[in-house]
Amino acid sequence: MKVAILGYGTVASAVVKTLIDNQELIKARCDEEIIPVIALARTPKENALIPVVNDIELILNRNDIDVFVELMGGIEFPFEIISKILKRKKAVVTANKALLAYHRYELEKLAKNSAFGYEASVAGGIPIIKILKEGLSANNILCIKGILNGTSNYILSKMVEDGANFKEVLQKAQDLGYAEADPTFDIEGFDAAHKLLILANIAYGLRVKPEEILIEGISKVKQEDICFAKDFDYVIKHLGIARSKNEKVELRVHPAMISKDKMLAKVDGVMNAVSVDGDILGESLYYGAGAGGKATASAVVADLIDIARKEKNTAMFGYLNDTSYSLLVKDEIYTKYYLRLKVLDKIGVLSIITNLMSQLQISIDTFLQKPKKENDCSILFFITHETYEKNIQILIKELKKQNFIQDEIFMMRIED
């Protein structure tokens, strides 16, 4: 089986090296040689293990290529190229989560008569897509919770470990190569959101785009929040959550406080983990490296082995027909909330806040006040009982109108 690699960076070079170094092992497992024969790159690559060209037509026009591995990144150009390949009934493997977040439905239609592998698009080397499609196929999926971005998880872990602020840890992550020069895609939740949509499509057949779901990043988390969480036996993690109830599915990506005793709370550093709750199996956790050349290459090569075994997906994302599930409106999310307010330390402030909460039927579970020495201010911390997202958003809007509010209001959801 001859393979062309579209895009020759860190992951692609690891894929090629794996196919060459483990050639005999791979052949033994699929009874066929998988041979990388050519790669696409914008610029020449020194010490490349296979020929590298910069003209994609030279690759697309070859009739001897059996599988095209797309590792270019981006959305529209890869979509155009993969569409052409699938129309020719050729197999495709991709690690491109952004592409699938926006164009998975169109690609699913085109891939009906071709093999299409995308294990590497979510959680790197963790075979979570195969687990959902095959290992848990007898289960109705009640909930998926995942730490889906290693950069964000590393930053939050180091904020706890070092007692440092967000900017300091972000700089360290960039110095170590865990974060890009422009880290927005990772720290503001977009990368995790793309991955969550892929998982939700497999579990529920949902065909929604990132703009339709709740997405928040970690850049506003402060040491005050880290300390509060620790004092009340919580850990802050950046989570992607998909939860079904009454044929509605809530999809959200945001920092969340979770109990320190939860399995996900113990996942630190750049590692990823996905917790899946099935109606038959119950909760199971899948843990491993979520990024990097070797981890992603492991998933890409696994897809190539499946294709070499002539395994095709009868339903690319698990649903042959339209699903009965629909997306829950953001306002209808129902959970507990954490609020941090910096206010002027004067009589009547707390009364105004609690009255606003009462009017919106928001009940207080926990309250803590810490004095701030400068500017006669105090920091107020609240944990609410379960309430609707709409009520919390109205509360924040009303609080912003108050002249005693001295800084941006910070809110975080709590997942017990």
Automatic annotation (TrEMBL):
Keywords: Amino-acid biosynthesis, Methionine biosynthesis, NADP, Oxidoreductase, Threonine biosynthesis
Residue ranges of the TM segments: none
Record-annotated active site: 195 (proton donor)
EC supergroup of this enzyme: oxidoreductase
Reaction it catalyzes: L-homoserine + NADP(+) = L-aspartate 4-semialdehyde + NADPH + H(+)
CDD domains: ACT_HSDH-Hom
Entry EC no(s): 1.1.1.3
Binding site for L-homoserine: 180
Binding site for NADPH: 97
InterPro entries the record matches: ACT-like_dom_sf, ACT_dom, Asp/hSer_DH_NAD-bd, HDH, HDH_cat, HDH_CS, NAD(P)-bd_dom_sf
Protein family according to the UniProt entry: Belongs to the homoserine dehydrogenase family.
Record-given protein name: Homoserine dehydrogenase
Organism in which the protein naturally occurs: Campylobacter volucris
